[in-house]
Amino acid sequence: MSSQKGNVARSRPQKHQNTFSFKNDKFDKSVRTKKINAKLHDGVCQRCKEVLEWRVKYSKYKPLSKPKKCVKCLQKTVKESYHIMCRPCAYELEVCAKCGKKEDIVIPFNKEPENAENNQRSNHRRSCKRNEESDDDLDFDNDLDDTGENQAD
């Protein structure tokens, strides 16, 4: 190595070369890591999306433990890490939820999937209740049939 200050010209090639890329779930196979890897970063600009993906890729992403305060509505409604605005405020103002700039949103917020999940849950509950009621009805019918046979004897 040269002793000259600022001389960045190297006379030899780099000694160590990376042979494989970093994998954040190679050793850590926890549920938390799987959730972070599966997360969809919507409602942010291209630059913020790349930043969040880099954080996920190199295990620097930390999910929020409790909601943060939104800078627009001042309510504790920000549930995404590294975001400064809640979903409704960012959607209404059409700005990036992370940096707050009026940039082109790469993946817009989807209002339908949340409602669809809630509808599926409520539909599932209703169908389970219907199945229970129909099972109860069947038992009731069987009881009537049994009593009818006993009365005929």
Structure report:
The chain has 153 residues and is mainly α. The chain is built from four helices and no strands. The longest helix has 42 residues, at 111-152. The radius of gyration is 29 Å and the shape is extended. The relative contact order is 0.10. Residues 1-24, 110-153 are annotated as: Disordered. InterPro entries: DUF2039. Residues 133-153 have a biased composition (Acidic residues).
Characterize the main sheet. none
Structural class: mainly alpha
Q: In angstroms, what separates the terminal alpha carbons?
A: 108 Å
Number of strands: 0
The whole-number mean of residue pLDDT values reads 78
Q: Which consecutive residue ranges, at least 5 long each, have pLDDT under 50?
A: 112-120, 136-141
Radius of gyration: 29 Å
Helical residues, percent: 40-55%
SSE sequence, one letter per element: HHHH
Strand content: under 5%
Question: Judging from the principal axes of the Cα atoms, what is the shape?
Answer: extended
Number of helices: 4
Biased composition (Acidic residues): 133-153
InterPro entries: DUF2039
Region (Disordered): 1-24, 110-153
What are the salient characteristics of this protein?
45% helix; mainly alpha; single chain; 4 helices
SSE diagram, text form:
Blueprint: H1 31-38, H2 46-57, H3 87-93, H4 111-152
Summarize the structure.
By secondary structure, the protein is mainly alpha-helical.
